[in-house]
Specification:
By secondary structure, the protein is of the alpha+beta class. It is built from three helices and nine strands, in the order αααβββββββββ. The protein is elongated and about 80 Å long.
Length: 263
């Protein structure tokens, strides 16, 4: 005999309550680590993880309570199996199949090709870190394997919602900002990050920077999302081809190029 639904719901609820002990234990472990870790970045990262685990524990417990409440409104007895009707043969004649109508083939529309951004080339040679990023930064934490930064586009500006204004890969010379828009995921505070700008093979120290992710004012970007990085050289943009190389630690994330045209 099959158990009634209310019994199954109770067993599932009890299982969820037991499972919630795992994230609860991990929460306690991260809280202890947040108090005793030797570096500020490690303590802050442990505190952030503890919030994630306590939310997971609360979610499992809340779901278990909902299942227990739902079980109170379900019948305590399993429903009787439906009766199988007995079909009496009315004729020994084999049924005649009705042929299906043939569909008239329709013309398949041709999809327009998606434009590929021309400003993100694929490097054919290994790309090394600039010399300014070779020295390790104090308090840096190791980057996770799932940490990623993906280049989206260049633009001449940014609106109030953080979206690119006049995106493109070529801009006029002058004293204006050029923005690089990108997405990121799997990032943690304290991970070494480098944005290196070049004109041809000439390193632009003014625009480039190596910093600890999330620990610089104005760049508290979090674990995942979208943001931008801009540069405006003191002497303005001169005609030529420019390139940005993005790194997490020494792992190249992308190489993007744009051009400054002639006057």
């Amino acid at each position: 005999m099959t158990a009634p639904p209310s019994v199954w719901l109770r067993w599932i609820a009890y299982t969820l309550l037991l499972a919630s002990a795992i994230p609860a234990g991990l929460t306690v472990y991260q809280l202890v680590k947040a108090r005793r870790a030797p570096y500020y970045a490690l303590r802050r990262a442990a505190l952030k993880r503890s919030r994630h685990w306590i939310l997971a524990a609360l979610a499992l417990q809340a779901l278990a309570v909902l299942l227990l409440i739902a079980g109170l409104y379900l019948p305590a007895v399993a429903p009787a199996p439906p009766l199988t009707p007995t079909i009496s043969p009315t004729s020994t004649r084999a049924p005649t199949r009705t042929p299906r109508p043939t569909r008239t083939p329709t013309t398949t529309p041709t999809r327009r090709p998606t434009a590929t951004p021309p400003f993100i080339p694929t490097p054919t040679q290994p790309v090394a870190l600039p010399e300014t990023a070779l020295s390790p930064l104090p308090s840096a934490v190791p980057a996770g394997e799932d940490a990623r930064i993906s280049v989206i586009t260049f633009a001449a500006g940014e609106d109030a919602a953080g979206e690119p204004v006049d995106p493109g890969s070529e801009f006029p010379p002058g004293d204006q900002r050029v923005y690089l828009f990108f997405t990121f995921e799997g990032m943690e505070d304290g991970v070494t990050t480098t944005f290196a700008w070049y004109k041809g093979e000439e390193f632009i120290d003014f625009c480039s920077d190596t910093w600890l992710w999330g620990l610089v004012e104005g760049r508290e970007w979090g674990e995942r999302g979208k943001s931008s990085y801009y540069c405006k050289p003191p002497g303005g943009w001169e005609p030529g081809t420019y390139e940005i190389r993005v790194f997490i630690e020494d792992r190249l994330q992308g190489v993007a190029q744009f051009a400054i045209g002639e006057e």
